[in-house]
Amino acid sequence: MPWAESLLFLLLLFSLPIPFSHSWSFDYPSPIANINSLWTNNNATIPYSATYPDGSTIRAILVRQNPTWYSPFFACGFICTAPCNDFLFAIFSVSVGDPSNPAFNTSSMPQIMWTANRSRPVKDNASLQFKDGNLILRDFDGSLVWSTNTSDSRVVGLNLAETGNMVLFDAMGKTVWESFEHPTDTLLLGQSLRQGKRLTSDSLATNWTQGQFYLTVLDNGLYAFIEADPPQLYYQRRFNITDAIVQPNMNISSDGAKNYTTYISFLKGSLSAFVSFNNTDINLFDISLPSPSSAQFMSLENDGHLRVYRWDGTSWKPQADVLHVDLDDCAYPTVCGDYGICSEGQCSCPSRNSGDEDQFFRQLDNRQPNMGCSLAIPLSCDLTQYQQLLPLPNVMYFNLGQNWTTDEYSCKEACLKACSCKAAFFKYNNVSNGSCYLMPKLFSLMNYQPEVVGYNLSAYIKVQMLPPPPRSKQLNPLVYHVGAPIIVAVICIIILIIRRIMKRKMDDDDPFKGLAGMPTRFSYKQLREATNNFSKKLGQGGFGPVYEGKLGNVKIAVKCLRDIGHGKEEFMAEVITIGSIHHINLVRLIGYCSDKFHRLLVYEHMTNGSLDKWIFRKNPRGTLSWATRYKIILDIAKGLAYLHEECRQKIAHLDIKPGNILLDDKFNAKISDFGLAKLIDRDESHVMTKIRGTRGYLAPEWLSSTITEKADIYSFGVVVLEIVSGRKNLDNNQPEASNNLINLLQEKIKVGQVLDILDNQNEEIQLHGEEIIEVIKLAVWCLQRDCSKRPAMSQVVKVLEGKIDTETSAGYDAASKDDINFDASSPLSPAPVSAR
Ligand SMILES: *[C@@H]1O[C@H](CO)[C@@H](O)[C@H](O)[C@H]1NC(C)=O
Ligand SMILES: *[C@@H]1O[C@H](CO)[C@@H](O)[C@H](O)[C@H]1NC(C)=O
Ligand SMILES: *[C@@H]1O[C@H](CO)[C@@H](O)[C@H](O)[C@H]1NC(C)=O
Ligand SMILES: *[C@@H]1O[C@H](CO)[C@@H](O)[C@H](O)[C@H]1NC(C)=O
Ligand SMILES: *[C@@H]1O[C@H](CO)[C@@H](O)[C@H](O)[C@H]1NC(C)=O
Ligand SMILES: *[C@@H]1O[C@H](CO)[C@@H](O)[C@H](O)[C@H]1NC(C)=O
Ligand SMILES: *[C@@H]1O[C@H](CO)[C@@H](O)[C@H](O)[C@H]1NC(C)=O
Ligand SMILES: *[C@@H]1O[C@H](CO)[C@@H](O)[C@H](O)[C@H]1NC(C)=O
Ligand SMILES: *[C@@H]1O[C@H](CO)[C@@H](O)[C@H](O)[C@H]1NC(C)=O
Ligand SMILES: *[C@@H]1O[C@H](CO)[C@@H](O)[C@H](O)[C@H]1NC(C)=O
Ligand SMILES: *[C@@H]1O[C@H](CO)[C@@H](O)[C@H](O)[C@H]1NC(C)=O
Ligand SMILES: *[C@@H]1O[C@H](CO)[C@@H](O)[C@H](O)[C@H]1NC(C)=O
């Protein structure tokens, strides 16, 4: 077909870059490719490659030079981000040097504008084939990853246009397929999003797989959703179609009015909505944007924002937030994570009374409140009868989708009945009626002022409680004990029944009874069943064995206390005291059992078990990073600071050691067994006749003087050293000269080789030398023989948070004067010491 070839030649001429004064000496690949081309993803086949300082690599197949060298070039080809295991076939922008030094300038990163199939990355030696009118991407093993699906004999070439559009064209130069019609998360200047198409965010800035946000154009508006079942709407801008079509005085039949399509276009200075009707495009509205002084792109990002970026000569800089006109920052679904409440950009967890140390929700990450919150007890469809709705004042939701008219009571009932309902919102229309909204999935909530928005919304979040103790079992023995006189018995029974009914009634009136911090009372039988007859032992604590159990879907840990031969009432009183102490870094006491023979405590289950399993042995599930270790040290410090300084009664733990530090699924550390020493010694005349605690963690004053919470601070110092060094303080497996870690540290401090105590296997620890030295100094501060010189736990927390410095001189002086050593291996004289 000679005519086709000459046409193609003409076309090539026209699509060449506009000539400019400088000429490029670097040989960039052509922006156009002919049919029957094959590229393999390796350096040999694609010579135009560059590796960026972080290891990301591009292999460019087509490059479209830009007439102005200070604008980025567009290229299509393979791209990977460090560590470069996976490539995508993509269109991306690349920065180039000035004409005197033309080459890819790797000091600014490439920016991906379009990807072929981001949910399916490919490897080295993947292939891109342009054949039979089709552009086909296959992985190295030949598996089909993506195709334009254009088996069209008319296709003669592939062109990467100056706009960033990749086009398959025919001999007439007409477009057969274009990347602009298949947007991913980005719109380039001049690009449109047509009715039914979506922009879908990436899941993470570093991960290209499809994320949860999408922006779409429907026949009646522009909408943004977050993926859920069903998807939840967080932005909408309706089209006023009829109005637009009628205005140009068209004669529309009722059918004709429905025959239109809509789209939005990213134009210079605006994001504009259009309707195409009877071959005419009519503008519906414009969202004005900053005018481009250079290149721009618009991207739906993984926080749900639609942002415009501009090229500032060296990199892309955010320039505008498109939906911002209509959307407050707090109205984005993930601004404060799931269940988080956004108030003027600040995130918090739901609670009944503001400032309450809350027992229903906890922050996923104390240092990042915007990560959101989780329910303290996860919702379980098996225990719907123990679910309640927690009312939240002045809270509303970004999307109130489907609703129906009813009264507030029925609305709440409907939510309690539906297992899928996570929250209910009710908006009054008049005194008795209103709209009821049930939410199967709850993203971020937002605070509002009823006076400002002009309406009142009742918000209820569903929370889970554990089964209450059986009431009948407590009543029966009482009834039996009443004895012979039947009449008395009958009267008693009647009274009891009446009281029970009254009590039930009162219980019903207060939906949070049993939740306000009070641990639940269980029967022994209940706990035996929950633990499957105490079959799965989790560990052996200082006070007795611990078993795994399950209440409904909720995992628990049940501790069987031994050596408690007294005071059921006192035991309960004490348990309630312990049970009412709530802190994110203390393991929560959920309930207890106390009968004639048994004393059991029910704790929340901690997925990752105790700390010793992670620091002393090579855990098959991996070692902890330094960042995690640091966080664990801080968590322990916060928990202890709370026990020592923030509780109504000061609580000394007296057995701080890695075995008593538990880790949840996110490696948040929590102290367990607090208050037990006190509990157990309550009746022993307030004097400890034997040393409690664990060898290796005992403070020197155990031998001589009064025991205070300062003993915990010493033990904390030991634990910190163990976390840092990855070995036990007293370790008989070590050579004798180094089997006492504190002695060893002391030696190393004297010779200035502190980091010698570290577990050398761990490279990451070697990388954070300075921070580690600071933490060791902190430990030394805590390990001083004179307990009055040890810091308070609140000071320790401040040091770890970087708010104050360690009194380093104090610590190191002490070390050099042999003041930190306590030879725990020396015989312990059983001198009675006071416990208070
Ligand atoms: C491919 O080329 C890039 C840049 O030229 C280089 O950094 C990389 O090491 C090469 N890869 C291989 C496998 O040769
Ligand atoms: C690459 O870009 C940086 C700015 O991003 C600039 O400082 C540098 O001079 C450029 N290098 C070349 C070779 O043009
Ligand atoms: C890619 O293919 C070349 C040539 O067939 C081969 O030498 C090379 O080992 C392959 N690379 C990978 C990573 O498979
Ligand atoms: C992307 O890859 C996945 C997995 O191979 C496949 O299911 C999907 O159809 C592909 N998408 C496109 C647009 O080719
Ligand atoms: C091509 O067709 C396949 C199979 O029908 C489909 O999965 C894929 O999404 C299509 N690709 C594009 C780019 O439309
Ligand atoms: C990207 O995210 C997906 C889904 O969240 C995950 O399966 C995948 O492993 C992630 N990929 C990388 C490289 O992190
Ligand atoms: C449509 O636009 C007209 C005027 O432009 C306006 O009067 C009307 O209220 C609009 N309708 C809607 C539903 O916004
Ligand atoms: C509009 O269409 C109706 C019938 O569909 C016709 O009667 C009327 O004359 C038309 N008006 C104009 C202005 O064309
Ligand atoms: C709708 O438009 C299409 C093409 O624009 C046309 O072929 C079709 O007849 C129209 N349908 C109606 C009901 O007007
Ligand atoms: C469509 O436009 C043509 C002229 O462009 C006009 O004659 C025709 O009446 C229009 N049809 C409708 C349904 O508006
Ligand atoms: C309530 O739902 C109806 C349709 O079910 C809808 O038209 C209305 O806009 C909704 N109300 C609100 C405030 O979302
Ligand atoms: C409240 O509004 C509903 C309709 O929305 C109506 O049926 C009902 O009678 C109203 N009640 C009062 C007390 O006005």
UniProtKB/TrEMBL annotation:
Record's GO cellular component terms: membrane
Region: Disordered, residue numbers: 815-836
InterPro entries: Bulb-type_lectin_dom, Bulb-type_lectin_dom_sf, G-type_lectin_kinases/EP1-like, Kinase-like_dom_sf, Prot_kinase_dom, Ser/Thr_kinase_AS, SRK-like_kinase
Membrane topology, from the record: Single-pass type I membrane protein
Molecular function GO terms recorded: ATP binding; carbohydrate binding; protein serine kinase activity; protein serine/threonine kinase activity
Domain Protein kinase: 532-804
Enzyme class at the top of the EC tree: transferase
Signal sequence annotation: 1-23
CDD domains reported for this sequence: B_lectin, PAN_AP_plant, STKc_IRAK
SUPFAM superfamilies for this protein: alpha-D-mannose-specific plant lectins (SSF51110), Protein kinase-like (PK-like) (SSF56112)
Any GO BP annotation: response to other organism
Database matches in Gene3D superfamilies: 2.90.10.30, Phosphorylase Kinase, domain 1, Transferase(Phosphotransferase) domain 1
Pfam families: B_lectin, Pkinase
Location(s) in or outside the cell: Membrane
Record field: catalytic activity: L-seryl-[protein] + ATP = O-phospho-L-seryl-[protein] + ADP + H(+); L-threonyl-[protein] + ATP = O-phospho-L-threonyl-[protein] + ADP + H(+)
Low complexity bias spans: 824-836
Superkingdom of origin organism: Eukaryota
EC number(s) on file: 2.7.11.1
Chain ranges passing through the membrane: 478-498
Residues in Bulb-type lectin domain copies: 54-181
Keyword annotations from UniProtKB, A to Z: ATP-binding, Disulfide bond, EGF-like domain, Glycoprotein, Kinase, Lectin, Membrane, Nucleotide-binding, Phosphoprotein, Receptor, Serine/threonine-protein kinase, Signal, Transferase, Transmembrane, Transmembrane helix
Keyword Acyltransferase: no
Family per record: Belongs to the protein kinase superfamily. Ser/Thr protein kinase family.
UniProt protein name: Receptor-like serine/threonine-protein kinase
Originating organism: Oryza nivara
Lineage: Eukaryota, Viridiplantae, Streptophyta, Embryophyta, Tracheophyta
